[in-house]
Specification:
The chain is an alpha/beta fold. The protein has two domains: 191 residues, Glycogen Phosphorylase B (Rossmann fold, 3-Layer(aba) Sandwich); 184 residues, Rossmann fold, CATH 3.40.50.2000. It is built from 16 helices and 14 strands. Strands 1-4-3-2-5-6-7-8 form an eight-stranded mixed beta sheet, sandwiched between helices. The protein has a six-stranded parallel beta sheet with strand order 11-10-9-12-13-14, sandwiched between helices. α3 crosses α4, α9 packs across α14 and α12 packs across α15. The chain is globular and about 65 Å long. The protein starts with a strand and ends in a 5-residue tail after the last helix.
C-alpha cells in the first residue's frame, strides 16, 4: 500500500537532489520520528528528497503523508514470523528497483537487521543513522552488523564514541537532530493551556516529556517531588503515553507511586500529546532525571527553545546539550540532589528567568535545522560519485 505522494524525480546518482529512502518500522513515535518529520518539513526538496518505506501504519505515516511525503507500506514484518519478513523484503526489493534512491537509510538495528540484505542485493548504498548507542551483545545489533553501511550518521559525540567502540570501520559524521523553534503561536497558548489544566496563578509548572520508559527517571522525579511537598507553589506534568504492553504496566505503577508519596493531584499524567511545543511554552521548568544515558535528547532542545531551564542527569548526550548557562546537570539516580536543584529554582524566579533566557541561543547553536541539514547533505554528497 502506498500513500499518494508528490512526484519524485529520478535523477542519475550523484546529481542533486540527493534521494533518500528511509526504511523504518513505523509502529512507535518518539524522538526519531519527530526528527524525520522535521527533516521532511525543513529540507529543500531541490537539494534533498526523502521517501519512506514502513512496516506499520500509525502516527508517523499520518504525519509524513500530511507533509506530502511518499510512504510505502512493506507490511507488518515480525522476526518471530519469518514469512512476514520475506514478504516485506520482496516489497522493499521492488521499491528499490522502482525508485533507485541514492541511499537506503536505517534508523535502528531492527530495520538494518531485517532489511539490510535486501538493500545490499539491490546494490543501493546503505546509510545507518545511529540515534542511540548500539548494544554490542544484543542479537539484533549483531545481526545488523552483517550489513556494513557506506556511511554512519551519529546524533551526538556520545553516540559516535559508542559506535567507534564496536569497531565499525566506515566514514562517520556527527549530525545533531534538526529541531525547529516553536511557532510564535505556541507562546500565546500559555494562558489557555494553563487555564484548561487548572493551574492557579503564580504556580510553577515542572514538565517532563517523553517515552514512558524507566530509563527516563520518572521514579526519581516522583521521589524528588515528595521532598518538595512542603512547598505549595508547584505542580508537575508528565507527558507521554504507553506504546508497548510493558509501558502500560509501568505507567500504572507510577500512578500508584505518586499516590503513595502524597503527590496525587500535584503530579498529572497527561498522556500522549501532539502539542508538545505549546506545553513547553506553558511550563516553567523542564526536568528529566535520566537514570540511563540519553543519546542526545530532542526534548531538551525543545525545552531550551521554549525558554525553560533544563534539569537533567550528567550522563550521555545530555552533557552535550545542557551546560551551566541554561540548566543543571546532576548525578543520576539521586532524588535528594534533584529535589535540592528544583527547590532553588522554585524559590528564585530570577534564576529561572536567567537560565531560560540562554536557552533559545543554545538550541539554535546545536540544532538549527538549516545548519544540520546542510551538514547532512555534505556528508551524503561525499559518498556519491563526483
Amino acid at each position: 500500500m502506498t500513500l499518494e505522494p508528490p512526484a519524485i524525480s529520478h535523477q542519475p546518482s550523484g546529481n542533486l537532489p540527493i534521494r533518500l529512502l528511509h526504511v523504518h518500522s513505523g509502529n512507535l513515535y518518539g524522538g526519531i520520528e519527530s526528527m524525520l518529520a522535521t527533516l521532511v518539513r525543513s529540507a529543500d526538496k531541490e537539494q534533498l528528497q526523502s521517501s519512506f518505506a514502513v512496516c506499520f501504519d500509525g502516527r508517523l505515516s499520518e504525519e509524513l503523508h500530511a507533509l506530502g511525503s511518499r510512504v510505502d507500506f512493506l507490511g507488518p514484518a515480525r522476526v518471530s514470523r519469518p514469512w512476514t519478513v520475506w514478504r516485506a523484503r520482496r516489497r522493499l526489493a521492488a521499491l528499490l528497483q522502482q525508485q533507485r534512491p541514492d541511499f537506503a537509510v536505517f534508523h535502528s538495528g531492527w530495520s538494518q537487521a531485517v532489511f539490510g540484505s535486501a538493500v545490499q542485493s539491490a546494490r543501493v548504498r546503505v546509510l545507518r543513522w545511529f540515534h542511540a548507542a548500539p548494544q554490542e551483545q544484543h542479537w539484533l545489533d549483531r545481526w545488523a552488523r552483517r550489513t556494513s553501511p557506506d556511511l554512519a550518521i551519529c546524533n551526538s559525540h556520545f553516540t559516535a564514541t559508542a559506535v567507534a567502540r564496536t569497531g565499525l570501520s566506515v566514514p562517520q559524521v556527527v549530525v545533531h537532530p534538526p529541531v525547529p523553534p516553536p511557532p510564535p503561536a505556541a507562546a500565546s497558548a500559555r494562558g489557555r493551556l494553563r487555564g484548561a489544566l487548572g493551574v492557579p496563578e503564580g504556580t510553577v509548572v515542572i514538565l517532563q516529556v517523553g517515552r514512558m520508559e524507566p530509563g527516563k527517571g520518572h521514579r526519581i522525579m516522583l521521589e524528588a517531588l515528595a521532598h518538595l511537598n512542603d512547598r505549595r507553589e508547584w505542580v508537575a506534568w508528565q507527558v507521554g503515553g504507553p506504546q508497548r504492553e510493558a509501558e502500560v504496566s509501568y505507567v500504572g505503577s507510577l500512578g500508584i507511586t505518586a499516590a503513595r508519596l502524597g503527590l496525587a493531584g500535584r503530579v498529572r499524567f497527561l498522556g500522549e500529546h501532539t502539542d508538545v511545543r505549546e506545553l513547553m511554552c506553558a511550563a516553567d521548568i523542564y526536568c528529566q532525571p535520566n537514570v540511563t544515558p540519553e543519546s542526545f535528547g530532542i526534548t531538551f532542545i525543545e525545552a531550551l527553545y521554549a525558554g525553560l531551564p533544563v534539569v537533567t542527569s550528567a550522563i550521555g548526550g545530555a552533557s552535550e546539550v545542557v551546560d551551566l548557562t541554561c540548566g543543571a546537570l546532576l548525578p543520576p539516580g539521586d532524588p535528594v540532589a534533584l529535589a535540592d536543584a528544583l527547590r532553588v529554582l522554585l524559590a528564585d524566579p530570577a534564576a529561572r528567568s536567567a537560565l531560560g533566557a540562554a536557552g533559545p541561543a543554545r538550541a539554535r547553536l546545536l540544532c538549527d535545522p538549516a545548519r544540520q541539514i546542510e551538514r547532512l547533505q555534505q556528508a551524503l554528497a561525499s559518498r556519491l560519485p563526483a
